């Protein structure tokens, strides 16, 4: 195959694998691994594992370590020091120590079946200590659990694992030295690493800031990108020629840049290289897996998979419990971190290159690691079910949390449930307070909840995407639900629970753009408010005002645009303070629910001729509670709710026509 053939094959495999994973909401990394297995020399044999491709794929690890270094922040570490340097440090050290001891014990007990040296045992312990940052962080973020008790512990452990990769990258090549040269080799490697890191970190940040500022002043995106590649690959080259590893230099480069004001720009620019090359790395990992050998030795693969998952689950759960977490939280942390990780694959590849993993064990170990990563999304999906069955006290803790929410909502009625108490939710709460409308807000940030409660706000800690939390917040007594955070998956859960329990309760959802608008509407959202449209309207109003257009006309133009976009803003609902003579003829909104035996039931909208009265139908909600599209030919059913728009006298006539027997 030519170079172009190979490049096209890898691109095709990458695209198809990512598309498949997106369809099933799985991390792309799993798709890359499966794609590598399929196109590799041990399956369809569409591509051969060449040294050139492997070397190119190594740059995926280089950019991964660069991004890890870029996210390395001393203030962040200090804020999470108990979870990072307490639970995280204990997890890595104990995993390596216990795995090494277990391997050596197996050598004594089963010498004919398990033959490894202590160097190999240490390397295997380091590989086992890693969990998948890419998979777990994505799933935790999607489940809105980053600020939960188990979420903070999971993030802390993963952060320390990422840091622990750096010394392991130095340790594993040193372990491959001859026994008599091992200590000198290890000492030399550590000395080189200490000298190089000390030299780079002592004055490196000052030089890096000066150099990046000099390049940025040229105002050339092309030059800035070339400079980033030069810094990353240059420091990687330096550490490799110092007898260390490419990835170590990239990590240092990221650390140096992380303390400069260019961090976020660099993160944005480097992301495409990181994602593409890391995908290539995982494809090459998949190509190494010989599935025929795995099938021949499937009992060994199954034993390795089961023992590794059980060992890490038990140990991490026990450690989290020892560090003060409840049993339910501890078990969740163990379930989230029991799998192998992408850095484990990196270390396994490095150990294989230095003959620290016996060839007959390489494929079974690789297969067990890949299978554990494939199982992770399902383990996390059923975590709540597993914990509820195994930990009785967890149910009690959740009951206590629901009781707190219920006690807060006990004295309010016809209130608004605010899902999310960020800046948007807090602004909404202030407006509701100004109008004397009660509300209760649910938020998952404990610090924000604590500060807001201290200030007298009606906010409680709870996940709005959970039915129990919505019920405790008084869902059946509420007058409306507003989702103020931008997360379509969670908003869909809120909509599902709301319309399952309170069919006619209106729900307003915030979103970034129109991309998910129809999906949210189909799920039952009364109105969807895209930020992009609101931002464009405000920009247009300021621009028109600056151009000299009269403010009254600017307000009318913006209102006309809103009327065209939001059906519910075409008019207003009548209130007790809307009876002035000036407002009688203004357009307002009225809600009419059809009786089951009314004369309008079974008729089309056209036959009712409401427009002849000066009234139009703004929206139609079926008896099931879901809004629906409609036209003149739509047939009405009993229990349907129509939102009518028009002047007060016309609305009265229209209501009489719809409700007459």
UniProtKB/TrEMBL annotation:
Molecular-function annotations in GO: antiporter activity; monoatomic cation transmembrane transporter activity
Membrane topology: Multi-pass membrane protein
Gene Ontology process terms (BP): potassium ion transport; proton transmembrane transport
Domain of life: Bacteria
Entry-linked InterPro entries: Cation/H_exchanger_TM, Na+/solute_symporter_sf, NAD(P)-bd_dom_sf, RCK_C, RCK_C_sf, RCK_N
Gene3D superfamilies assigned to the protein according to its UniProt record, in alphabetical order: 1.20.1530.20, NAD(P)-binding Rossmann-like Domain (3.40.50.720), Regulator of K+ conductance, C-terminal domain (3.30.70.1450)
Main location: membrane
Membrane-spanning intervals of the chain: 6-22, 29-47, 53-72, 84-110, 116-141, 153-176, 182-202, 223-238, 274-294, 300-323, 335-353, 365-387
Alphabetical list of Pfam families matching this protein: Na_H_Exchanger, TrkA_C, TrkA_N
Domain RCK N-terminal positions: 413-530
Name of the featured protein: Cation:proton antiporter
Biological classification of the source: Bacteria, Pseudomonadati, Pseudomonadota, Betaproteobacteria, Candidatus Accumulibacter
